[in-house]
UniProtKB/TrEMBL annotation:
Keywords: Copper, Metal-binding, Oxidoreductase, Signal. GO terms for cellular component: cell envelope. The gene is nosZ. This is Sec-dependent nitrous-oxide reductase. Coiled coil: none annotated. It comes from Christiangramia crocea. The lineage of its organism: Bacteria, Pseudomonadati, Bacteroidota, Flavobacteriia, Flavobacteriales. It is found in: Cell envelope. It is an enzyme of class 1 (oxidoreductase).
């Protein structure tokens, strides 16, 4: 047994070599007569817009990047879980609370799965959710501002990976733990894992108007690894499906010890049933400690609140709500087709894809076609839930997306390809190589009832020689395929930020009309806003100095400040008075132990400067804003700590 597992594992290790052997012939195959038509298909003329937005996770960059498709042009990197000096995210006083957690300020995370909000199973383009894996968090990005406006920490979780997927009406954004842990956390021997650790599946409700997130309940499952998840839809609305591995509950050398069972499970959770149970007073509150951080567009300021309890539900208390579907070989992806009938489990160590039927699952539940239980949770009979398998489709299947025309597209990491197959017949229709070792694939709307099956985007783990070399670290890469024909056609390679895992795509028309152009100055409710130049001033409160400053092309008010002393803590609260689209100003101060600020029209931001040396120190605008941008500068006079220079400020005076 162990030998065969090690053989399969060795295929994983060999994957990159396979890929490289192919490289020359494959690359030549991309060129030739058809290459120019591929170029036309991705060409978006200067001044024209792309047809789709693609929100591509940054993986270990902790951010979310925004690309246009089909051009592959990078439009923005939205800071989410990691500090970003370009936008002062996590550096300015206003956004620092967004990165607060029960572990304190955590300025980094590993972001995997963006998912766009839905209404009636269709993308509505209001928000993108994304998970932080490492210090479990779920973030929400507002698609009017393309800024992160909310982050909620997930207690009782670790390696928040089967996240952040939304239900058909964005009732919930779901977060499942990849690593089971003691719940509540406590000091105990690691080798007592089995039977003692728990795997929490967290259902976070989303307010339909404001979008505010709140943990509705956590389902305390057996101590497996919950890897990926997708919602039911259409007929299976009300259910959520989670792939599991390590049902062996191993705590060491998982590459061998978690590959023993021939089948792991897809856990089917009837969240409607549990919601009803909870609404009727079911579940138990347990003490917890987790941060809920909200950024307010009126105050331009975030607040962080620590929550102290969470409602947990034991699956055994809600009979008929949780079942286990046996699924071969440590499944990774767990994907539901647009009609909601098929649940695809991609066993990483299996050559075949497993396709379960929702209809058969319900029938098996009703007729109690069980095959034992795990910790009291019924296991359904494999043959009675299986719709069929896709035979010998490739090696190392990871993820599947759907085109809305009855086809599925599965990524194969080891054989490094995308394979198109028919969902009903489960016959393979086409296969195209990826360069190299593809992880997720994405079709715009692919996780919805209504996909836009024009392109599939493959996000590859390895690029090797596809681009100019840049030292030992080379970029990761996405590849765009046209899927409008029977056969897929590779159109484009483009480099990505960080390590993309999943992505979410949406027609630009659903989003772009709502995109905000400015913040209205007269609606600015920032505590330290300076709404008129007459109010610009400097105030001292002991060692704390508050500078109420404004900026407009091409000066700061005030631009000369005297009476600051070594040992002071100087807060620059800077309000951008521009009310035109695309006119931010920046500000930076010599020696400040923080980033610049980049302030949007109508917005106020704050940085702190603690001058250490007497002198006359300049500050300046960091964003080229007009022909007189270079003139947008000022000075602060810093005197020794014991000086009695009066505090004063001015603009345009000698
Ligand atoms: Cu990279 Cu969805 Cu985190 Cu697979 S996961 S590749
Ligand atoms: Cu303001 Cu440059």
């Amino acid at each position: 047994m162990k030998k065969s597992i090690l053989f399969i594992l060795s295929l994983f290790v060999a994957a990159s070599f396979f890929s490289c052997d192919n490289s020359e012939s494959s690359k030549n195959g991309d060129r030739g007569a058809l290459a120019s038509s591929a170029a036309e298909k991705v060409y978006v003329a200067p001044g024209e817009h792309d047809e789709f937005y693609a929100f591509i996770s940054g993986g270990f960059s902790g951010q979310l990047s925004v690309y246009g498709l089909p051009s592959g042009r990078l439009l923005k990197v939205i800071p989410v879980f990691s500090q970003d000096p370009e936008k002062a995210w996590g550096y300015n006083e206003e956004t620092k609370p967004m990165l607060n957690t029960s572990h304190g300020f955590v300025p980094w995370d590993d972001a995997h799965h963006p998912d766009i909000s839905q209404t009636d199973g269709k993308l509505d383009g209001r928000w993108v959710f994304i998970n932080g894996n490492n210090t479990p968090r779920i973030a929400k990005v507002d698609l009017t501002t393309f800024e992160t406006t909310e982050i909620i920490e997930v207690p009782n979780s670790a390696g928040n990976h089967s996240s952040s997927f939304v239900t058909e009406n964005t009732e919930y954004v779901v977060a499942g733990t990849r690593f089971s842990v003691p719940v509540p956390q406590r000091d105990m021997p690691i080798n007592e894992y089995k039977g003692n650790f728990k795997g929490s599946l967290t259902f976070i409700s989303v307010d339909p108007e404001e979008g505010h997130m709140d943990i509705k309940f956590q389902l305390m499952m057996p101590g497996f690894d919950y890897d990926l998840a997708h919602p039911g839809r259409g007929k299976s609305h009300g259910w959520f499906f989670f792939s599991t591995y390590n049902t062996e509950e191993a705590n060491s050398l998982l590459e061998v010890n978690a590959s023993q069972n021939d089948k792991d499970f897809i856990a089917a959770v009837n969240w409607k049933k549990i919601e009803e149970y909870v609404n009727n007073g079911g579940g138990k509150t347990m003490p917890a400690n987790y941060a809920h951080n909200i950024y307010d567009d009126d105050t331009h300021t975030a607040t962080s609140t620590m929550k102290k309890e969470v409602l947990v539900v034991d699956p055994l208390e809600v009979p008929g709500a949780v079942f286990l579907l046996p699924t071969p070989k440590s499944p990774h992806g767990c994907d539901v087709n647009p009609t909601g009938e098929y649940i695809v489990g991609n066993g990483k160590l299996s050559a075949d894809l497993t396709v379960h039927s929702y209809t058969k699952m319900i029938d098996a539940i009703e007729n109690e076609k069980f095959d034992g239980e795990a910790y009291g949770i019924p296991i359904l009979k494999f043959e009675d839930v299986l719709a069929g398998t896709v035979k010998q489709a490739g090696l190392g299947p990871l993820h599947t997306e759907f085109d809305g025309e009855g086809n599925a597209y599965t990524s194969f990491f080891i054989s490094s390809e995308v394979v198109k197959w028919n969902v009903e017949t489960r016959e393979v229709i086409d296969r195209k190589p990826c360069y190299y070792s593809v992880g997720h694939v994405m079709i715009p709307g692919g996780n919805s009832a209504d996909p836009f099956g024009k392109y599939v985007l493959a996000m590859n783990k390895i690029t090797k020689d596809r681009y100019l070399p840049t030292g030992p670290e080379v970029t990761q890469s996405a590849q765009l395929y046209d899927i409008t024909g029977e056969k897929m056609e590779l159109l484009l390679d483009f480099p990505t930020i960080g390590e993309p895992h999943y992505a979410a795509g949406i027609p630009a028309d659903i989003v772009k009309a709502n995109s905000r152009k400015i913040f209205k100055l007269d609606e600015n409710k920032h505590e330290y806003a300076t709404l008129s130049n007459g109010d610009a001033r400097v105030e001292r409160d002991g060692n704390e100095v508050h500078v109420y400053m404004t900026m407009i092309r091409s000066h700061f008010t005030p631009d000369n400040i005297e009476g600051i002393k070594v040992g002071d803590k100087v807060y620059f609260h800077v309000t951008n008075h521009e009310q035109d689209y695309d006119v931010p100003h920046g500000i930076s101060m010599i020696g400040a132990n923080t980033s610049e600020l980049l302030i949007m029209p109508g917005q106020t931001e704050t940085f702190v400067w603690e001058p250490k040396q007497p002198g006359v120190w300049p500050f300046y605008c960091t964003d080229f804003c007009s022909a007189l941008h270079q003139e947008m500068q000022g000075y602060v006079r810093v005197s020794p700590a014991n000086s009695n220079i009066e505090l004063s400020w001015s603009l345009g005076e000698d």
